[in-house]
Amino acid sequence: MEEALFEHHANHFNQAEGTPYTKPDMTNAFGVNGDSNLAEEFRNGTLDLDKILPQDTYEREYMKRLFPTQDYPPTIDTEIRMSDVKKGFSIWKERTSTSPMGRVLSLYKMWLQVDDETAAKDGCMSGDTFFTMITDLIKVSQNVKLPLNRWKTVHNLFILKEPNNYNIKRLRALHKIDA
Description:
mainly alpha, 8 helices, flat, 179 residues, two-stranded antiparallel sheet
């Protein structure tokens, strides 16, 4: 079963391989993750396509159509605030699994209950302090464009959708990422 899953996933996750945007001219220009300076220029609408693509190519025409224009919707605010992090943890259902590293969601949710007064009385940090630390960690990681190694670990689990049906396409995939 494990071999069959690996084979299925190798095919599934490599479907884009060979398309124009996985070829060296594009990956060299934009990076495999779209994180190069040219990718930033493209997102800002300031990229000169002559830098990377020859005239009269399908890719160039397609890229021109993807170029941001004045009538695009406004940029989405991507700043993460401590209130956003707290809200995320507050609505996260405890019946879900939270971490390949064994972190338990209940411990995060506990901090939602620790206000300044309780923290002072019990001699611990407040929930706001705890969630500010998490928020700052996320922001630093975003700014340096480098996730923590534990955020790169994902456990893929598969459970049967139907009893005794082991067809790979009939398995429910669960992806455990670190909280």
